[in-house]
Design a protein that fits this description.
alpha+beta, six-stranded antiparallel beta sheet, 12 strands, about 60% helix, extended
Length: about 675
């Protein structure tokens, strides 16, 4: 088996300190060397050798932070881009000469300062506007009050309170006060959806009686400190102040838009600063003497000579030597898959890259993921739509690496869905029994169709069991292969081979429970299961010197067979999602047919329903299919053989996020 994990070579590069900047620049341009921290590998260094302590990382981080802030601040003020165009990354096209000239003439700091100042003013004005708007909403409940707030002050003998009771409780409040107090005045000022607002004036000697009534009726006192005038006057004043604030915000927005033309230059400067920051971080990973720097890292074995020739051609005072791996040291991991499986590497990255010594499961995962995804959808119409949409985005837009891989995954999964949909007769949920069996289209559908997932759900269940058995079998086989590859073939076969037999035997038994699979298969299932369980009991304890421990491990292994049964049963989620797709897609069609009976506008409404509902449900189906298919691979498949946790190969390179070099780019020595 050709392993997709790229072989790595550890290298050490020695050079004169005067060449530091030039060599780091060339290494970054080459983009093939993963720089390793020497302080982690060599905590103790010989006398005269030290680590870099200050390389300007903090300064570059501060500069980059400001530039990224300005870019994000100005983004909303750009000319609006279409929803589809937003999927692509905006880039600035320029050549090397233009790039260098921009860096010499534009620092961006004035723009950053302006953006920070504008942001502070916008935040302050927006907060003040929201505060005044909230106060205006409160005043709306008291607009009928014709007494200025400054006149609602207590005196030596009286208290005055503004407050609210729950809706419908004002009459009760009035009655209770009449019963409990003598000297008071209660007035209903206004109502809202949930509360009734009132003004209460009472003599101080009634304080205890009034307090008990207000508490019993959940009276909430409202305080408006520092307000002058009546509520209506306050609202008028707030309207004028809010209008002034909105005008101020509009002015700030206009000033912000004037800075938008600087955004492309900020993008270039941010990319340059990010590249410089990576070089400064790489510098912290090096060791040095008074005159010499030592850089250590990893390069793909096939690229070692390329790196060596490239650097030695440009620099005479440099030494590049291969180095031995330290005990326990693990090289970073780079996956090298062919185009089809590389589209599914994002699934591996969600779980964790393989360790350097592990098998890359991507080529094995690829067909399973696509097929399981297709079984979750079971609709060729949905598969064709998904394929077309994915192909459109891949061809039309310059997508980021992660987004591109996602659409590649969906493209291949869409193809698998077309196949599974054709085999199950699913085409946008259409019920073909409504049409004439003599129709060429109907004949073509039934010629390819193998079973109906709704009418023959047990067959669908058997298909899911077969998928589970084969998937788990592959995982157990990879576990056995890993042991063989490590040089312990006999032990690996004896320990893992019986699980393969038990997996197949259990699967046939489960299929036979749903529908007879034939006498011969039933007999073989018994033999396989008995042989597998016997092998598990006998060989699970290999390596244990204590007979009791051997037997204990054997019994524990037998108990683990239940786990295999549970794992196979987990693949029933394929059936559940596939049936849901078929049923709900059919319901959408039925609703559309009902709409078509409406005179004049029925056909238009039905077409809109078909397009919107099917596209919306396709989105939901894709999300469910991705999540549940990933779960089957993560939990049922990877748990059999895969550990993950490898460090990703991350060479020092140019970011190339915002800058797109034009054809006039010149080669820089």
């Amino acid at each position: 088996m050709k392993l997709a994990v790229a072989r790595m070579q550890k290298v050490q590069i020695f050079f004169h300190n005067s060449l530091k900047e030039a060599i780091l620049e060339e290494i970054q341009r080459a983009g093939i060397l993963h720089v390793r921290s020497m302080e982690e590998s060599y905590p103790e260094l010989p006398e005269g050798v030290s680590f870099q302590k200050d390389s300007g990382v903090g300064e570059q981080e501060t500069l980059l932070s400001g530039l990224e802030f300005a870019l994000e601040y100005l983004k909303p003020f750009e000319e609006k881009r279409g929803l589809l165009n937003k999927l692509g990354t905006a880039r600035v096209e320029l050549d090397e000469q233009e790039y260098r000239k921009l860096l010499e003439e534009f620092t961006g700091q004035e723009v950053v300062r302006s953006c920070r100042k504008l942001e502070r003013e916008r935040v302050r004005s927006s907060a003040e506007l929201n505060e005044k708007d909230a106060l205006k909403q409160q005043m709306g409940a008291w607009v009928n009050l014709d007494i200025p707030f400054e006149d609602l002050s207590p005196t030596a003998t009286s208290e005055v309170i503004l407050g609210s009771v729950p809706g419908g409780q004002f009459a009760v409040l009035s009655q209770r006060l009449a019963e409990e107090a003598e000297v008071y005045h209660l007035e209903l000022v206004g109502k809202s959806a949930l509360e009734e607002h009132c003004l209460l004036l009472y003599h101080r000697r009634e304080s205890n009686a009034v307090a008990s009534v207000l508490e019993a009726l959940e009276f909430t006192e409202k305080r408006f400190p520092n307000l002058q005038g009546t509520p209506e006057q306050v609202i008028d004043r707030l309207d004028r102040e809010m209008a002034s604030l909105r005008k101020s915000l509009h002015r700030l927005d206009e000033e912000s838009r004037k800075l938008v033309p600087h955004r492309p230059k900020l993008m270039v400067l941010a990319e340059h600063t990010a590249d410089e920051l990576e070089k400064r971080r790489a510098e912290l990973k090096m060791a040095n003497t008074e005159r010499v720097f030592l850089l250590e890292g990893w390069v793909k074995k096939k690229n070692f000579r390329r790196l060596e020739d490239h650097l030695k051609k440009k620099f005479a005072a440099i030494s590049i030597v291969p180095a031995d791996t330290l005990p326990g040291e693990m090289p970073p991991v780079e996956l090298e898959n062919k185009p089809l499986p590389s589209s599914f590497e994002m699934v591996i990255d969600l779980y964790g890259r393989p360790k350097y010594t592990e098998i890359d499961p991507t080529p094995i995962l690829t067909p399973f993921f696509a097929i399981f995804f297709g079984l979750c959808l079971t609709d060729a119409g949905y598969g064709l739509t998904l394929f077309a949409i994915s192909l459109f985005f891949l061809k039309k837009f310059r997508l980021g690496r992660g987004t591109r891989k996602l659409f590649q995954l969906l493209l291949w999964s869409g193809l698998a869905t077309i196949v599974t949909g054709a085999l199950t007769g699913g085409y946008f949920g259409i019920d073909w029994s409504r049409f004439s069996p003599e129709s060429p289209v109907v004949k073509a559908v039934y010629a390819v169709k193998v079973f109906d997932p709704i009418a023959d759900a047990l067959t669908f269940f058997q298909v899911a069991i077969v998928c589970g058995v084969v998937h788990i079998f592959a995982g157990l086989s990879l576990k056995m292969f890993a042991g063989i590859r490590e040089g312990d073939a006999l032990r690996s076969i004896l320990m893992h081979g019986p699980w393969l037999l038990a997996d197949v035997g259990l699967g046939i038994f489960m299929m036979n429970f749903l529908a007879p699979v034939g006498e011969i298969l039933s007999v073989w299932a018994k033999y396989l299961l008995v042989a597998g369980m016997l092998g598990i009991f006998l060989f699970s304890g290999i390596g244990s010197k204590n007979p009791i421990a051997w037997v204990g491990k054997g019994l524990g292994g037998l108990y683990g067979v239940i786990g295999i049964f549970s794992d196979i049963l987990s693949y029933s989620r394929l059936v559940a999602l596939g049936l849901a797709t078929a049923v709900i897609a059919g319901v959408i069609d039925i609703l559309g047919i009902m709409l078509m009976k409406i005179p004049f506008v029925g056909i238009i409404m039905a077409i809109i329903l078909f397009i919107v509902a099917h596209l919306g449900y396709l989105l939901i189906c894709c999300l469910g299919a991705f999540v549940h298919t990933a779960r089957l691979n993560f939990v049922e498949f990877f748990s059999k053989f895969y550990e993950g946790g490898g460090e990703q190969f991350d060479p020092l390179s140019k970011r190339a996020k915002f800058v797109l070099w034009s054809e006039r780019k010149e080669e820089v020595a």
